[in-house]
Amino acid sequence: MESDTDQPRRSRRERPAKPALSRDGIVATAVGIMRSEGLGKVTMRRLAQELDTGPASLYVYVANTAELHAAILDELLGTLHAADGGDWRERLEGLLTSYTDTLFEHPGLARAALMIRPSGTHYFRLVESLLALLDEGGIPPGQAAWGVDVLLQYATATAAEQATRDQSAHTRAEWDSLTGALRGTSGRTHPHIAGLAAQLVSGTAEQRMSWGIATLINGIRDTPVPAADIPAGGAQI
Fold first, then answer.
1. How far apart are CA 92 and CA 213, in angstroms?
2. Cβ contacts of 22 within 8 Å, gap of 6 or more
3. Separation of alpha carbons 130 and 136, rounded Å
4. Residue 1 burial by CB count (10 A; 0-12/13-18/19+): exposed, middle or buried?
5. Is the domain defined by 81-168+180-222 classed in CATH 1.10.357.10?
6. Does domain 20-62 have CATH number 1.10.10.60?
7. What Rg do the C-alpha atoms of the chain give, in angstroms?
8. Is residue 12 scored above 50 in pLDDT?
9. Residue 63 DSSP symbol
10. Where does the secretion signal sit in this chain (predicted)?
11. What does the alpha-carbon distance between residue 47 and residue 30 come to, in Å, rounded to a whole number?
12. Confidence (pTM)
């Protein structure tokens, strides 16, 4: 009877070939890890393990973890869509809401989005769509250019804040405590808070998001950008 050691060993040429590495394949694998394990697990080492390769081979396609996270965000932005109906304001709000909802689904990515700067195809398409909608609304080009940055900052910060709260086990208790403290404020020491206690915590998250976007749009429309030379390296958005 032959033992296992008597069995002929398979040569490397007989083993199934691993799929060739590519940036698209690396990003797709990273997205899969994030969906199942969270963004915190998306590291070069974990990604290399999933792809059955060494971490060093990944740096040919992705410079570092920050760039990888930016590529993940850009990939998810490919699912965004603006509503077909409504005026330009409604479509712009719908697009930003779709962006925020995408970040809501991935709390780690929502927080990371405050720091990372995607520069892929889907991010550029988002910026182009926002600029087109602001142009449709008659917003002057310079104000639209700066306004896109403000709108995306607001939407990203809103998503990051809400995602962080949703992950906390004490969110409800903390909110009740804040509400109670506001309503119990003395009108003698804090007259404005006491007078507006109910309004300070009123409205749904959706209503506040909508109001915030409308407020920013009005400000972008009515506030000219200062006359300034663009640095040689270009302004950062």
1. 9
2. 61
3. 10
4. exposed
5. yes
6. yes
7. 24
8. no
9. S
10. none
11. 6
12. 0.80
